[in-house]
Amino acid sequence: xxxxxxxxxxxxxxxxxxxxxxxxxxxxxxxxxxxxxxxxxxxxxxxxxxxxxxxxxxxxxxxxxxxxxxxxxxxxxxxxxxxxxxxxxxxxxxxxxxxxxxxxxxxxxxxxxxxxxxxxxxxxxxxxxxxxxxxxxxxxxxxxxxxxxxxxxxxxxxxxxxxxxxxxxxxxxxxxxxxxxxxxxxxxxxxxxxxxxxx
Length: 199
Ligand code: 5GP
Prior knowledge:
Blueprint: E1 8-12, H1 19-27, E2 33-35, E3 38-40, E4 54-56, H2 59-67, E5 71-77, E6 80-85, H3 86-94, E7 98-102, H4 105-114, E8 119-124, H5 128-136, H6 143-157, E9 165-168, H7 172-187, H8 190-193
Parallel strand pairs: 1-7, 1-8, 2-7, 3-4, 8-9
Antiparallel strand pairs: 3-6, 5-6
Helix pairs in contact: 1-7, 5-6
């Protein structure tokens, strides 16, 4: 029997901080923590699978989802829509399953307003210099995109004080351990377990 209530975990961090790698490692093999698959109007990248990485859709359908109130939050980011479908989240939380969102800082702020119990975690690169080195190491990223991502990274890092936890991804194993530890500690919160006392 599960004794913990489901919690909503929100992970943000600049492009190149290593969010996907860390999330995949933390989620692998767990049935008590699910990744929230966002909807987006951006084109799939090589290797991305519809329904696994994102629900890929067009602008008309996305705007219909907004109108129908199907999204917990959404943003327009680099000419594409990104949004978090609310129904699977509510269903998972109801069953005591934790949910992990990978969303940018504006959307994360809106989630916090809508669901103040959400646990906010920021994954940062060790430095902007290291982030630049990582972005330049990605073969497919043109120079102007590197510059705009670095500019955005600076803006995103200014939002770090809004987050409950800061994980610095200097080493992937350490970052995975820290994120797993945060999730475990939040599950053990007294407020998360009071219902076992009938409260
Ligand atoms: P990418 O296009 O590289 O997959 O994602 C671009 C940015 O959009 C990342 O910072 C990612 O965290 C963010 N993102 C992905 N899904 C969502 C979402 O549903 N809502 C918001 N607000 N941001 C998202």
